[in-house]
Design goal:
Catalytic activity: a fatty acyl-[ACP] + malonyl-[ACP] + H(+) = a 3-oxoacyl-[ACP] + holo-[ACP] + CO2; (9Z)-hexadecenoyl-[ACP] + malonyl-[ACP] + H(+) = 3-oxo-(11Z)-octadecenoyl-[ACP] + holo-[ACP] + CO2
CATH topology of the largest domain: Peroxisomal Thiolase, Chain A, domain 1
Helix content: 25-40%
Largest sheet: 10 strands, mixed
Oligomer: single chain
InterPro entries: 3-oxoacyl-ACP_synth-2, Beta-ketoacyl_synthase, Ketoacyl_synth_C, Ketoacyl_synth_N, PKS_Beta-ketoAc_synthase_dom, Thiolase-like
Family: Belongs to the thiolase-like superfamily. Beta-ketoacyl-ACP synthases family.
Strand content: 15-25%
GO biological process, one term: fatty acid biosynthetic process
Pathway: Lipid metabolism; fatty acid biosynthesis
Distance between the termini: 18 Å
Length: about 400
C-alpha cells in the first residue's frame, strides 16, 4: 500500500487566517476567543465565541461570486486555495485522480435563517434562488472542485464534530489504496448565529463565562462549564508519497493511520468505548503501539461529560504508557469549530511534529481529578517526537482518530 503525505494546508480561524499566524498563536498559548457584542445575541446565555475577524473574501473570490456563497463555503474555498498555494502542485497532475472530501457540520445555517426570515416577513417570492445551493452541506466540496479542476471523487462527510477527521481519514484511505493521487480534505462551518447559540444553550452545552472571554474555554479543568462556539475552515492537501517526491514537493508530514467508529448508544452522551476503539484502530493501522505516540491533540471541548469520557478512553488505550503521551486540548484557544475542528487540530498536530514543540491547554488551572492525563498545562513544551494522535468526536456517537508521523525523508 502507498504512503500518504501532507504537502499543503490552509486555515481560516479565530486564531489566524493562515497557517503561520495560527501556529504563532497556538504555540504561545494565545486565545482567539472574544466577546460577542452583536445585539442579536443579547438573549443568549453564552455571548463569547471564536469569531472570524476581518475575513478578506475578496482575496479569494470576486465580489459577485462571493455573494452566491454562504460564509462556510467562502471559508472552505479560502482554506483550500491556501493549501494548494502552499503545495504548489503545478500543472503535471491527473485531474481525474485528484479529489475533494470537505464536509460541514451545520452547512449554511446563516443562509437558511436569513431566507426563512424573508419568507415569513414577505412571502415565498423573497426567497433567494441561491438558497438551496448556498445552504447544502456538500457545496463547499463542490465549489472547491469547480474552482480547482479536481475531477476525482468528491464527497462531503457529515459526522458532526468528527467531520474533518472523517474527511482526512477517508481521503487517506483513497490514496493509500490507489484510488487517487491527491485529495483536498477537511471541514468548514460558520455557526456563529443566535439561533444556533439558542439551541446549544438550551442543552446547557455552551459556556456562560461571558465576562472573561479568553478564559472561557477550559477543557479538562475542574471549573469548565461548556464549550465556546467558533467557526472557520481547515483543508489539507494529501498526496501519494511517490507523486509528491517526483515533483519535488516539500513534505509537511505523513498520515499514518485512521480509525473510525460509532458508539451506537446515545445521540449526545458519549460512550468512552467507541472513542477508545477509534484510537486503537488508528494506532494499529499506523503499525505502531500506544507507547510510540508522543502527543495527543484531544477533542476535549470543555463540556463536563465529554472531557471526562475522552480522558477515560485515552486511559483505556494507553494504560501503562500514559505518562509518555502528553495531551493538550487546543480548543482552549480556538474554541470549537464544529465540522472544521478536526482539520485545524490536524494542522496544529503536524506543526507540532515539525517544530518539535507541543502546544498547551490554556486555562488549565485546576485539572479535574476525573481527567487524569499527562497534560501540557498553559505553556508549550519542547519534544522531539515521531508520532502524534488527533481525536475528533461528534453527536450521534461518531468517532474519528488520525495518527500523524513526522516526515524524515
Amino acid at each position: 500500500m502507498r504512503k500518504v503525505v501532507v504537502t499543503g494546508y490552509g486555515i481560516i480561524s479565530p486564531s489566524g487566517n493562515d497557517a503561520e499566524t495560527l501556529w504563532k498563536n497556538i504555540s504561545t498559548g494565545t486565545s482567539g476567543i472574544k466577546k460577542i457584542d452583536d445585539p442579536a445575541f443579547e438573549e443568549s446565555a453564552s455571548r463569547v465565541g471564536g469569531v472570524i475577524g476581518d475575513f478578506p473574501a475578496e482575496a479569494y473570490l470576486e465580489a459577485k461570486e462571493a455573494k452566491k456563497y454562504d460564509r462556510y463555503i467562502q471559508y472552505a474555498y479560502a482554506a483550500a486555495k491556501q493549501a494548494l498555494d502552499m503545495a504548489n502542485p503545478g500543472d503535471d497532475w491527473d485531474a481525474e485522480r485528484a479529489g475533494v472530501y470537505v464536509g460541514s457540520g451545520v452547512g449554511g445555517i446563516e443562509t437558511i435563517m436569513r431566507n426563512h426570515e424573508a419568507f415569513l416577513a414577505k412571502g415565498a417570492r423573497r426567497v433567494s434562488p441561491f438558497l438551496v445551493p448556498m445552504m447544502i452541506s456538500n457545496m463547499a466540496s463542490g465549489v472547491i472542485a469547480i474552482k480547482t479542476g479536481f475531477k476525482g471523487a468528491n464527497y462531503a462527510p457529515v459526522s458532526a464534530c468528527a467531520t474533518a477527521n472523517t474527511a482526512i481519514g477517508e481521503a487517506f484511505l483513497s490514496i493509500r489504496h490507489g484510488y487517487a493521487d491527491m485529495m483536498l480534505a477537511g471541514g468548514a462551518d460558520a455557526g456563529i448565529h443566535p439561533f444556533l447559540f439558542a439551541g446549544f444553550s438550551s442543552m446547557k452545552a455552551l459556556t456562560t463565562n461571558n465576562d472573561h472571554p479568553t478564559q472561557a474555554s477550559r477543557p479538562f479543568d475542574r471549573d469548565r462549564d461548556g464549550f465556546v462556539m467558533s467557526e472557520g475552515a481547515a483543508v489539507l492537501l494529501l498526496e501519494d508519497l511517490e507523486h509528491a517526491t517526483r515533483r519535488g514537493a516539500i513534505i509537511l508530514g505523513e498520515v499514518a493511520g485512521y480509525g473510525a467508529t460509532c458508539d451506537a448508544g446515545h445521540i449526545t452522551s458519549p460512550d468512552f468505548h467507541g472513542a477508545a476503539r477509534s484510537m486503537k484502530i488508528a494506532i494499529k493501522q499506523a503499525g505502531v503501539t500506544p507507547g510510540d505516540i508522543g502527543y495527543i491533540n484531544a477533542h476535549a471541548t470543555g463540556t463536563r461529560e465529554g472531557d471526562k469520557s475522552e480522558a477515560k478512553a485515552i486511559g483505556d488505550v494507553f494504560q501503562q504508557c500514559l505518562d509518555s503521551a502528553r495531551v493538550s486540548a487546543t480548543k482552549s484557544m480556538t474554541g470549537h469549530l464544529f465540522g472544521a475542528a478536526g482539520g485545524i487540530e490536524a494542522i496544529i498536530t503536524l506543526q507540532a511534529l515539525r517544530h518539535g514543540l507541543l502546544p498547551p491547554t490554556i486555562n488549565l488551572d485546576n485539572p479535574d481529578d476525573e481527567c487524569g492525563l499527562n497534560h501540557i498545562r498553559n505553556v508549550a513544551v519542547k519534544a522531539d517526537i515521531t508520532y502524534a494522535l488527533s481525536n475528533a468526536f461528534g453527536f450521534g456517537g461518531h468517532n474519528a482518530s488520525v495518527v500523524f508521523k513526522k516526515y524524515e525523508g
